[in-house]
Design brief:
The structure holds two protein chains of two kinds. By secondary structure, chain A is mainly α. Chain A has one domain. By secondary structure, chain B is mainly alpha-helical. Chain B is 70% helix and 3% strand. Chain B contains six helices and two strands; from the N terminus they run ααββαααα. In chain B, strands 1-2 form a two-stranded antiparallel sheet. In chain B, helix 2 runs antiparallel to helix 3 and helix 4 packs antiparallel against helix 5. The longest helix of chain B has 24 residues. Classes of the chains: A mainly alpha, B mainly alpha.
Chain lengths: 484, 156
């Protein structure tokens, strides 16, 4: 449909802007804009929101290269060589390489998604309640393992998320849980309010708290000055392949994230380079590899979301909620029950990738001007859009007050180094996980062995436990050596 | 050292989450945990409530036994925290005022307040930002998109 092309363009444009703006991420933007898509068709809505998701990956490199400040967490590594290239007067080439690497790797990720998603979905059709419980438990275990420096803090955040999703009325027995006598809480907490609070409001508060003056390096004028030389492109050919493959594989893993993909890809590029000592001084390969990885990651991350209904991170968790709100059930049946949404989304990824290359190459100098918007205007605007997003849920000021509360919670978590993503994922998956567990135990009349007597669920649960205990192995080894 | 460790963020966070876990476990244990038809509404909360208590105690224990890192000697950024706290209070107050003043006036006042007291801009700049932002939101969300927002005593 022609209107879907327009929404794809809107999403890509907004995503690029969001990627450029430090302090505003795709998760917060998608959360804020989601209520405004209620009147759209599910296909149009998911196309626009996914456009924001991968558009931000393109935009994030702009601030990394011009400001030495990543616009997105996945663009951190691009700062290392990208900023150095800009300091040498090669800002245009750096921006061009980032855009080209993003296009090549993004295309690879989309093709791989198209080929791999159908067989995974077919396999998942054999799942019942025990398998779904085990799958969600595994998803949460993987996320917590890779979410931050402290496993304990990640698990605590996850459990708080599970508690938050329990607030309201129990589906099976109508028992009110943790409502503190408030009738407004009987329907539970809305995901949009939680997500906008812990992402958007928290980012603004953190940005205000960490006030820093920054200087933007100039972007060369003229399209030709944005293109890398032929020698630079030749030097990057292994980096393009490296970023594509590494980014996609890491993206499939729930909880891994594009940041990890870009670090690993950069590390591999440096390890196999003929001149590793030059990394960090402004090498084009040092830009191409991480930028490619963080774009290929998008295609990978959509696989567990669309075929299994398992989000791999904060942003895909919000996309999951969006699909559910529109009445689309992500999972193995999505391709058969909502083929227009699934294949419409995949098609938009192809088209959006081309749109982003066109947007990012010649229009980068224009986008860079966005960085000059004063923060005393930008931050209140983010507040305003957040309030509108929260109020649009049910038309209650109570939700907006809850929004403020979750903003404070998210800010406290960020200062105390508690990762937010496990909390959001616990909130998103907790309800379905509890339902799957209780249905499983109803099937077996309270016998927990149903979870381990079925091979698929047993395998996933064993893997989940192994993943949780894996980080403790080096500690056990050190204790053993100290004792010996 | 003993006094300062109890002011440590991890200790306070661990204590708070342990208290939360205790509250969850005690409250949920009053509901049906396991019935003849299977697990009840208390089953899941009791499980994660106990897990939360255990993990909180581990966090506190880890903090007591961990070696001091150099970043612990970095002074707390009270100025930054104050800016964020003032911003949050202003945001919450503007939310509460929306019932009386409506979204656009509350939002304009919030922008003015933040411009003056958080970003320390001149009165003229903050006032222009407040008026133009509110007007911009009115044009985009009310006139163009028709989004229903809180209306105050002045009718908008």
């Amino acid at each position: 449909m022609p209107t879907n092309l327009l929404w794809c363009l809107v999403g890509c444009f907004l995503g690029t802007v969001v990627g450029i703006l430090p302090g505003l991420g795709p998760a917060a933007t998608i959360a804020m804009l989601l209520p405004m898509t209620y009147s759209m068709s599910p296909a149009s809505g998911i196309i626009m929101l996914t456009g924001i998701y991968y558009g931000a990956k393109y935009g994030g490199s702009t601030t990394s290269i011009l400001l030495n400040m990543p616009g997105e967490s996945s663009s951190v590594v691009t700062c290392i060589d990208g900023y150095q290239m800009a300091r040498k007067g090669r800002a245009g080439a750096a921006l061009g390489i980032a855009a080209i690497a993003s296009f090549i790797a993004g295309s690879f990720g989309i093709v791989a998604l198209s080929l791999i998603a159908p067989p995974i979905a077919a396999f998942a059709l054999s799942f019942s309640s025990p398998e779904y419980f085990a799958l969600m438990a595994l998803g949460l275990a993987l996320v917590v393992l890779l979410a931050g420096d402290s496993l304990v803090k990640g698990l605590i955040a996850l459990l708080v998320g599970l508690w938050l999703t329990s607030i309201g009325t129990d589906l099976f027995t109508s028992q009110s849980r943790f409502t503190f006598g408030q009738t407004s809480l009987l329907s539970g907490l809305d995901f949009m309010v939680v997500a906008i609070g812990v992402f958007a409001i928290t980012e603004v508060l953190s940005s205000i708290s960490d006030q820093e003056e920054t200087q933007v390096l100039p972007v060369p004028k003229g399209f030709r000055n944005l293109l890398p030389s032929w020698e630079e492109l030749k030097a990057c050919r292994f980096a393009f392949a490296n970023g594509s493959i590494v980014g996609f594989i890491i993206g499939v893993l729930p909880g891994a994230g594009a940041s990890i993909a870009s670090f690993i890809s950069y590390g591999i590029e440096r390890a196999f380079s003929r001149h590793p000592e030059k990394f960090g001084t402004g090498l084009p390969e040092g830009v191409a590899a991480p930028e490619g990885a963080n774009n290929a990651d998008t295609g990978g991350a959509l696989i567990p979301l669309l075929t299994l209904g398992i989000p791999g991170g904060g942003t895909t968790a919000i996309l999951l909620s969006a699909l559910v709100l529109w009445g689309v059930k992500p999972g193995p049946l999505m391709m058969t029950e909502s083929p227009d949404v699934f294949w419409g989304l995949v098609a938009s990824l192809y088209i959006g990738n081309v749109m982003l290359l066109i947007l990012n190459l010649p229009m980068v100098p224009l986008f860079a001007q966005i960085l000059r918007i004063p923060v005393y205007i930008l931050h209140p605007v983010i507040f305003g859009v957040s309030v509108i997003g929260a109020y649009s849920v049910s038309g209650r000021l109570f939700d907006v007050l809850m929004l403020a509360g979750f903003g404070a919670l998210g800010f406290a978590m960020s200062r105390l180094k508690f990762p937010v993503a496990p909390l959001v994922l616990g909130f998103v998956l907790g309800d379905a996980m509890e339902r799957a567990l209780r249905q499983s135990l109803m099937m077996s009349q309270g016998d927990l062995s149903i979870l381990i007597s079925r091979p698929i669920s047993a395998g996933m649960l064993i893997f989940a436990v192994a993943v949780l205990f894996l980080p403790l192995l080096p500690r056990f080894r050190r204790l053993k050596e100290a004792a010996g | 050292m003993t006094k300062s460790i109890f002011r440590d963020g991890d200790i306070i966070a661990g204590a708070l989450t342990a208290a939360l876990g205790t509250y969850i476990t005690v409250t949920a244990s009053r509901w049906d945990v396991m019935g003849p038809e299977g697990p009840g509404p208390g089953f899941f909360p009791v499980g994660y409530g106990i897990a939360l208590i255990i993990l909180s105690l581990i966090l506190i224990f880890q903090r007591f036994t961990a070696a001091r890192h150099t970043e612990e000697n970095r002074p707390f950024d009270w100025a930054g925290f104050r800016r964020a706290a003032i911003t949050w209070v202003a945001f919450t107050a503007s939310t509460a005022l929306m019932q009386t003043l409506g979204f656009y006036i509350s939002f304009g006042l919030l922008t003015l307040f933040l411009g003056l007291f958080v970003f320390e801009k001149p009165l003229k700049s903050a006032l222009i930002a407040g008026v133009l932002s509110a007007a911009g939101f009115y044009i985009v969300f009310d006139m163009a998109l028709g989004v229903a927002l809180p209306v105050g005593l002045l009718g908008f």
